[in-house]
């Protein structure tokens, strides 16, 4: 991936961290303060569903963002950064899968059909692609590891596919925010009330987070280094 001329990655990672914290706080305020809280088991099935947007935002989007930026944000050797990158992506994948589980759990216990919306279709596809990407990276770059020439050939595709899946995850998060707030507004939530504004602003913060993460991924770590992700 070509770097951005005259732009260094590190300042963008700082902004991304701030946006990640803001997104995490906002999604927690939404689901705990406005939606009533979180629950693994409850007679109020809405509390079970509330776990879904929290895990998908904090666990999948934010942890995935940190994994992408790990080579830019964390000082350390190539091997250490590789382990951090791999581990953060694994955490994002597990938490994302759990987030999908809670959506299914809520639907099944509430008598709601599964996989009827574009959001659910894209979400299931995204988590599957994320898993394929993680397994590919583990086998080629970590264990057992491919030959050096194969690693060099696979790296651009690994970077491209990883950023593609990340963009897909961001787009589906926006679909999820839109779907949920549209449903709530159709059942009486004020369109110009504080909860509606909070959800819309949370979605905007997630978009901005994605933009800054993508810039940090393609910008060089140093001005004189034109190659992105070169430490993988």
Automatic annotation (TrEMBL):
Q: Which residues cross the membrane?
A: 12-34, 54-74, 86-104, 124-143, 155-177, 197-219
GO terms assigned for molecular function: metal ion binding; oxidoreductase activity
Q: Which cofactor does it need?
A: heme b
Phosphoprotein found in the keyword field: no
Its predominant location is membrane
Q: What does this protein do?
A: Two-heme-containing cytochrome. Catalyzes ascorbate-dependent trans-membrane electron transfer by utilizing a concerted H(+)/e(-) transfer mechanism.
For this entry, the protein name equals: Ascorbate-specific transmembrane electron transporter 2
Species this chain originates from: Elaeis guineensis var. tenera
């Amino acid at each position: 991936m070509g770097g951005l001329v005259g732009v260094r990655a590190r300042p963008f990672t700082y902004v991304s961290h701030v946006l990640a914290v803001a997104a995490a706080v906002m999604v927690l305020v939404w689901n705990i303060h406005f939606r009533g809280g979180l629950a693994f088991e409850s007679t109020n099935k809405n509390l079970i569903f509330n776990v879904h947007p929290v895990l998908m935002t904090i666990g999948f989007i934010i942890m995935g963002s940190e994994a992408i930026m790990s080579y830019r944000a964390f000082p350390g050797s190539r091997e250490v950064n590789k382990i951090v990158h791999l581990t953060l992506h694994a955490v994002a994948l597990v938490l994302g899968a759990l987030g999908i589980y809670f959506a299914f759990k809520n639907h099944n216990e509430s008598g709601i059909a599964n996989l009827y919306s574009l959001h659910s279709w894209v979400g299931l596809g995204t988590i599957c692609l994320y898993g394929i990407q993680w397994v590919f990276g583990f086998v080629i770059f970590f264990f057992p590891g491919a030959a050096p020439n194969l690693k060099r050939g696979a790296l651009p595709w690994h970077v491209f596919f990883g950023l593609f899946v990340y963009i897909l995850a961001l787009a589906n998060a926006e679909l999820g925010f839109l779907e949920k707030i549209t449903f709530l507004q159709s059942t009486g939530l004020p369109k110009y009330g504080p909860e509606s504004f909070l959800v819309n602003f949370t979605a905007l913060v997630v978009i901005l987070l994605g933009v800054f993460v993508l810039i940090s991924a393609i910008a060089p770590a140093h001005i004189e280094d034109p190659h992105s992700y070169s430490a993988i």
